[in-house]
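Reopening this one. Same input as before:
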Amino acid sequence: MMAALAEIDYRASAGRTPWHRASALSKLLLATLVIAGAIAAPTLKVMAVMAVTALVLAVSSGLPLALVAAAAGYPLVFVVVFVWTRWDGTWLTPLMLVLRPVTASLTAAWLTGTTPYPDLFAPISRLLPRRTGDSLFLTYRAVWALLDRADRMWRALRLRGGLAGPARRRLAVAGEGLGLMVVHGFERSRRLYATMLLRGHSGRVCGCRHWAEPSSADLLVAVTAVVVAGLGWFVWRTG
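Same output, byte for byte:
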């Protein structure tokens, strides 16, 4: 899981596709259109249009096919039970229920895999209260750091036999590891805030860069949005 997330984060900054050159604002609008279309799709044909669009976006983003497959398959783990409880004896309802989260997951993979996180959080922070937006911005990187720390800690415990022995001992070790992570997170946040103050932090985290600067690549995003909306409407009206 950590490797997959790290790969997406790396591709977002190192990718060279037209999607990477488009502004974050236009891509957010396109992602919103696709996900909203998947949620509100009244027929299977409209749902198929959104699902195919999300798949094409993910494949054309430069992400490895293994990551695209993981993004498509990850929601299935959680939706199986829900689909089973809602099954009405036909194949239409389960298919619609499965395609919705798969479409959303593929769209999210495309968006996060082509947009560096400062650009991605910048437009979102403009719609939220200042403290909420800044908290989301900082939490994103803090979660990455804590996940990496936790991964290294559990690997060290496993190599040194810390996860062997009776269940009581393993629970004690797990509790100590969790406590260590809490202390580490608190100390890291304190040092991060001190560093921000030394570098001139004035109460506003600016996730800026070129999140709203239009470019020629935005034309591709706009054309895609028009085609998807038009095709979805046409399929719905003729279906």
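So the earlier flakiness isn't reproducible anymore. For the record, The mean pLDDT is 81.
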